[in-house]
């Protein structure tokens, strides 16, 4: 981009392109003479997505950031980890990166549809930090409205129970189980040959299973270690 031939090549590509996507630090494209207005002069209906870490405006716009940092600042890492552990834990995929790309793709589809109807392109300013924050919206609302702090759940689920990864009969063999409702619970108990749990007061419905999840996990683990599930 610094070399005149490189810039000329980019401009040639823009002239035959529908979309330009960049995630440099805010303002870099403008400093290289390739900002949105410059690209519009080449192709008036161009759609441009700018994805700096903190957006194109604001007090943090000049900072550089990567996916792991977006997770931390966006609150995602505070949702990860095992129950009872307070330290933030990063995801396995630096979730801040792919979620921003997914949001950009959605915004682009909307922009392309709008251009089909109006003939006009647009500039999309997509803050990667805001994309990360969006993923914990329910927890933000829970704190703002009810003062409820989100807790690390590990492998558990806010609704389903049981929900987790359990050791099985055999060396280093595991199974993940997710039970969404009481009907599924009854089928699981039948498969595990533990029908008595369907009528047990501590496990008979989903609320009871949530209250007694620790004991339920222990029961399931013991059952799986001694009697493998039929496949």
Explain the overall architecture.
There is one protein chain. The protein is mainly α. It has two domains: 143 residues, Crotonobetainyl-coa:carnitine coa-transferase, domain 1 (Rossmann fold, 3-Layer(aba) Sandwich); 64 residues, formyl-coa transferase, domain 3. The strands form two sheets. The protein has a three-stranded parallel beta sheet, covered by helices on one side. Strand 4 and strand 5 form a beta hairpin. Helix 5 packs across helix 6. Pfam families: CoA_transf_3. GO terms for molecular function: CoA-transferase activity. This is Succinyl-CoA--D-citramalate CoA-transferase. InterPro entries: CoA-transferase_III_domain, CoA-Trfase_fam_III, CoA-Trfase_III_dom3_sf, CoA-Trfase_III_dom_1_sf.
Topology:
Blueprint: H1 4-15, E1 19-22, H2 28-31, H3 36-42, E2 47-50, H4 67-73, H5 96-118, E3 122-125, H6 128-134, H7 137-146, E4 163-167, E5 174-178, H8 182-191, H9 206-211, H10 213-226
Parallel strand pairs: 1-2, 2-3
Antiparallel strand pairs: 4-5
Helix pairs in contact: 5-6
Pfam families: CoA_transf_3
InterPro entries: CoA-transferase_III_domain, CoA-Trfase_fam_III, CoA-Trfase_III_dom3_sf, CoA-Trfase_III_dom_1_sf
Keywords: Transferase
């Amino acid at each position: 981009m610094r070399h005149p031939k490189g810039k000329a090549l980019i401009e040639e590509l823009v002239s035959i392109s529908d979309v330009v996507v960049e995630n440099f630090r805010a303002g870099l494209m403008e400093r290289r003479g390739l900002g949105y207005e410059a690209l519009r002069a080449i192709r008036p209906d161009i759609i441009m997505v700018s994805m700096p870490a903190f957006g194109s405006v604001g007090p943090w716009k000049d900072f550089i950031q990567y996916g792991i940092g977006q997770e931390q600042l966006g609150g995602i890492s505070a949702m990860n980890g095992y129950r009872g552990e307070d330290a933030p834990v990063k995801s396995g995929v630096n979730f801040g990166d792919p979620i921003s790309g997914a949001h950009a793709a959605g915004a682009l589809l909307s922009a392309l549809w709008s251009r089909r109807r109006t003939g006009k392109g647009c500039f999309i300013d997509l803050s990667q930090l805001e994309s990360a924050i969006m993923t914990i919206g329910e927890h933000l609302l829970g704190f703002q409205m009810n003062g409820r702090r989100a807790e690390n759940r590990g492998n558990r689920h806010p609704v389903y129970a049981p929900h987790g990864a359990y050791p099985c009969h055999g060396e280093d063999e595991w199974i993940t189980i997710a039970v969404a409702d009481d009907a599924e619970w009854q089928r699981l108990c039948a498969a595990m040959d533990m029908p008595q749990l369907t009528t047990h007061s501590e496990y008979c419905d989903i609320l009871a299973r949530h209250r007694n999840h620790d004991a339920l996990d222990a029961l399931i683990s013991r059952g799986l270690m001694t009697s493998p599930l039929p496949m």
